[in-house]
Amino acid sequence: MTEKKTLVNSWNEWDPLKHVIVGRADGTMVTAPEPAIARDWPKHGFPLGTYGPLPKEMEAKANEQLDNFAKLLESRGIRVDRPTPMDFSQKVQTPDWHQDSMFGCMPPRDVLLTVGNEILEATMSQRSRWHEYLCYRPLLEQYFKEDPKFRWEAAPKPRLAESTYKDDYWNMWKKKSKEEKDQAIYNRDWVLTEKEPCFDAADIARAGKDLFVYHSSVTNRAGFDWLRRHFPDHRLHSIWFYETNPIHIDATFVLLRPGLALSNPVRKPLAPKMIEFFEKNGWEIVECAEPALDDYPPLSFCSKWLSMNTLMLDPKTVCVDAQEKKQMEQFDKLGFEVIPVPFIDVSAFGGGLHCATADVYRAGDCEEYFPKQVEGF
Length: 377
Ligand code: ABU
Prior knowledge:
Order of helices and strands: EEEHEEEEEHEHHEEHEEEHEEEHEE
Distance between the termini: 44 Å
CATH class: Alpha Beta
Bound molecules: gamma-amino-butanoic acid
Number of helices: 7
Low-confidence stretches: none
Strand order of the largest sheet: 4-1-19
Shape: globular
Number of strands: 19
Largest sheet: 3 strands, mixed
């Protein structure tokens, strides 16, 4: 029996899940060119500069897996809501720019950040995703009517004018040597300038009083600073990793349950004192298992590390992509009940099981999981 009454409340990544949004693949686009990103997939029909809808047969398979996942969650008593897709092939504009396509609404995690009784619409940092929040507005309006304590917030919409991006960034990136790319990683020299706050919601991992914010290619220092001021009762930690294409924390560093985090073996943490902070607070960090794939799935801007992009249903139960046998074995050894979910066909639409969901309600309160502080972190 699914719960009917709406309550918005979620403080972390693992408390018992009661209500969640699951995305839809309908109409998802390989997005038109824009300064924030460079899509170049000639082998799969989309060389640099081209754009268009993902093939309909791929979309049908992705929607089938998303629908089955939604049914699975409902069968476990979890209420599932779905966004309202738009015509993502339409051209969009603001007074500062026009963009020849939008993206889609498969990954609600990228747009919506739930902290306690608040859902915050992220700024986003790509023009093709500037209007994506509209797909969730019917649900947010409903929650606002049904839960008198629900705090509905939206971060300031960024201008995303030319000055938000570094000039000719992707062209310059292609010309860099390995040493220059390494230097850029250590300098966190990503496409965004610091002109205005930008962040994607999927760059934030929640652990009660502590929020970990990935300084990535879609979240800048100003975005972190905006979040820090917006959540004055939390401790916010800026973290970053060794990765040439950093986007979203949930295939890099995943909080599984109090005291246990899953870490990407290749994307090493670079933020000073981060490991010390976790260890001092008694957290174990384990490296994730070898992913099933060797490379990015076709037409996917995500990586093979979607293997670690998992959804916790409670501190003992984890949903994992069914192809990720080694990851499932590892979770089994760590004492989790593992639920295999066929999900590979969804990856090209914007991610894995964590990306495809956004918490509305997890039963639990704001707890302290990191009582010991480390100066400088
Ligand atoms: N949002 C999904 C994670 C992207 C990646 O690191 O592959």
